[in-house]
Write a structure and sequence with these properties.
By secondary structure, the protein is of the alpha+beta class. It has helices at about 60-65, 85-90, 115-135, 200-205, 215-225, 230-255, 255-260, 270-280, 285-290, 290-310, 315, 320-345; strands at about 5-20, 35, 40-45, 70, 80-85, 90-100, 145-150, 155, 160-165, 180-185.
Length: about 350
């Protein structure tokens, strides 16, 4: 145990467990992983080597393997879902974070920010996984997933995980979790209920022929926000807003759509959610939902930045990963309101 007041170098090891196998071949076995360095910490990402390692390597991981979650519907007849970690996961990736803290004088508590540590590990492993997906052209390679519930403002890791804390210099366990150095979670399980709608709403949708493309893109964006693929979410939200607005204009202008759009001036939101509906319907999303309009403006600036540079603006890059996810979720909420609003005008 370090002396109080000493600088302490902490190593936190997180294991993330997945229900899909990564596309490894024999060259993965001798590979030593990849190191990522940031000003305040370093991260080393290392995929599991099934030829030499156990899937659940340490006691904390073996504890995780026996954990389960059970969901039973209330009020509506139906079966139960029971998810046991050992029966569902088949791969893992390890992230080792290292940073320095100062053990405060006059206290037995060693500083350890679990939320910040988790976020750093999630970003590191998803950065690595994204490169696997791209290199393998494999759409089903899984990412660590994190949900944000606006109802309670809480974030939930959906992917099973363990974490252990050590003195990086000596390897001694650091009991930062209520007297122990490790903790585990089977991950949160999203409730299988999807709400309820009358069959008449489905019949109305069927009468339109193809299902609504803007709404389909917004649903894809919601999934992308949970999967922490925020660039893709922003592009999907922007495309949904654009398709809905251009459909509205086309319905009102027919063959004159191109010339009408050329006469619009200003930002995307101004042209398509203020000027155009003001002209045809004497309505304005800017006037009726000012906060939603401002978010559409901001979201489309992010979209333009991504289209032209492949990167987000500093507005999003300079905030924490949780704040970034919450902000993109706000874009999604505004996008849903904007699409619903202009779709009603289109009918």
């Amino acid at each position: 145990m370090p002396h109080l007041g000493d600088d302490l170098k902490i190593a936190a090891i997180m294991q993330f467990y997945f229900e899909t196998r990564f596309p490894r071949d024999t060259t993965w076995s001798p590979w030593k992983g990849v190191s990522l360095n940031a000003p305040e910490f370093s991260a080393h990402v290392l995929p599991w080597d099934p030829s030499t390692q156990e899937l659940f390597p340490e006691e904390i991981d073996r504890s995780l393997s026996g954990m389960s979650l059970t969901l039973t519907p209330v009020g509506i007849p139906g079966g139960s879902i029971r998810k046991t970690v050992a029966d569902t996961v088949i791969d893992r990736i390890q992230v080792t974070l290292r940073w320095e803290e100062q053990a405060p004088s006059g206290s037995d508590n060693i500083p350890f920010d679990l939320e910040l540590t988790q976020d750093r590990a999630v970003e590191a492993v998803n950065f690595f996984i994204e490169h696997i997906r791209i290199a393998a052209h494999a759409a089903w390679v899984p990412r660590v997933r994190r949900a944000w519930r606006p109802q309670d403002g809480q974030y939930y890791l959906l992917t099973p995980w363990t974490i252990s804390a050590f003195d990086a210099n000596t390897g001694a366990p650091i009991p930062v979790f209520a007297g122990v150095n490790g903790m585990a979670s089977p991950g949160a399980l999203r409730a299988p209920e999807t709400g309820s709608i009358p069959i008449a709403m489905i019949e109305d949708s069927l009468r339109l022929g193809n299902a609504s493309l803007p709404i389909a893109m917004l649903l894809d964006a919601e999934e992308a926000v949970e999967a922490l693929t925020l660039r893709e979410a922003i592009l999907a939200i922007a495309s949904a807003c654009e398709v809905a607005a251009k459909t509205y204009i086309s319905r009102n202008t027919g063959s004159q759509t191109a010339s009408f759009e050329k006469g619009l001036q200003g930002s995307f939101a101004s042209k398509f959610y203020d000027q155009a509906p003001s002209h045809f319907s004497q309505r304005s999303f800017k006037q009726e939902d000012p906060s939603g309009f401002a978010l559409i403006e901001e979201m489309y600036r992010e979209r333009n930045r991504l289209i032209h540079t492949g990167s987000m603006t500093r507005r999003l890059l300079d905030v924490t990963s949780r704040e970034r996810q919450r902000t993109v979720y706000a874009y999604l909420s505004a996008g849903n309101r904007a699409v619903d609003w202009i779709t009603i005008l289109t009918k």
